[in-house]
Amino acid sequence: MVPAGLKIDCVQGKYSMATKRKKGDACPEPAGTLLIIGGHENKGEDGSDGKVKPSTFQRLDVLKTFKDCIHKKSPSVEVITTASGVPQEAFQEYKKIFEELGFSKVGHINHGTRKEVLDDSLEERVNQADAFFLTGGDQLKLTAIYGGTRFLTVLKERYIQHPVVVGGTSAGAMALSTPMIYAGNEDVQEIGGEIKITTGLEFLKDVCIDTHFVNRSRFVRMAQVVITNPTCIGIGLDEDTAIIVRNGSFAEVVGSGIVIVIDGFSITQTNVNEFDSKKAITARNLNVNLLSTGDQYEIPQVNPPHQ
Fold it and tell me: Is residue 153 a contact partner of residue 117, using CB atoms and an 8 Å limit?
């Protein structure tokens, strides 16, 4: 069962929600593209890390896709390392790869405090770049430093109005959505109320992104987010795996792993009213899809768009 008026189809690997934005909606479809990466994406290694790779494995697959999404032969990119504890090392690593992939210019944006970004005039750089890439680290640093700033406003305006590409990996991917998990791991994920969420950067609304999903056994913590907020869907990304999101709602999987999508539209029973007693969570009729490279998924638009 799904909400009245909604229909979920599963045909040839494509999962779609029939309800779409109407022409008069206040919230426009973004002209830009998101590439949301589950972390630990292949950076040129041959894959001999002890893990069996699927037949579709390709070196640099996800990062090549990031470049391909820009549709320019020699694009420019701004690498945002604010989440990282070692920003210079992170920048140098991606700078080398992006130059090898054919980027003509690789800029570096990093802020250690909120005051730094408030004092930093970045509007011209944001308006000139073809793409932006948020590295891993601590997603809470990204939201605490950039939330409500002119920098974030201009970046989102570019994403909405122009065909730029915004990519993020690990913490940089988690920060692109709302709600955003910032605390709670496998040691506490079964206990109701132990997963902490906040507002992310909101490039995707009513979507919670989690990364390193299979490797770090994060299914239950994502399920808890969905159980407590069934309007939101959960998208868990395997390592070296990503989703390309076009028009703000059409997702396609790339990379060597899987994507797990959890929705709670059909939940019939939970024990959320007992979370104060630190009990293990329960829920009935969660819906789960497993997707791999080439599969498509239409992100449900069940919450009326708003500005």
Answer: no
Q: What percent of the chain has pLDDT over 70?
A: 89
pLDDT tens-digit series, residues 222-280: 999 999 999 999 999 999 999 999 999 999 999 999 999 999 999 999 998 888 778 89
Query: Is residue 1, in this structure, part of any structural domain at all?
Result: no
Taken as a whole, the chain contains a residue count of 307
Residue 21 maps to a domain: no
Question: 130 near 67, Cβ under 8 Å?
Answer: no
Residue of 140, 143, 146, 87 lying closest to 122 (CA atoms): 146
Helix (H) or strand (E) holding 244: strand 241-246
In our burial notation (b when 16+ CB lie closer than 10 A, e otherwise), range 145-184 reads bbeebebbebbbebbbeebbbbbbbbbbbbbbbbbbbbeb
Is residue 127 a part of any domain in this protein? yes
Range of the domain at 265: 32-41+58-298
How many whole angstroms separate alpha carbon 246 and alpha carbon 159? 11
Rounded CA gap, 233 and 241, in Å?
18
State the total domains in the chain: 1
Predicted TM-score (pTM) of this structure: 0.90
Within 72-203, strands assigned E span 76-80, 105-109, 131-134, 165-169, 177-178, 180-183, 196-198
SS3 content of the chain, % helix, strand, coil (to 5): 25, 30, 50
Asked if residue 161 is part of any domain, the answer here is yes
**How many angstroms separate the CA atoms of 15 and 17, rounded?**
7
d(CA 102, CA 123): 24
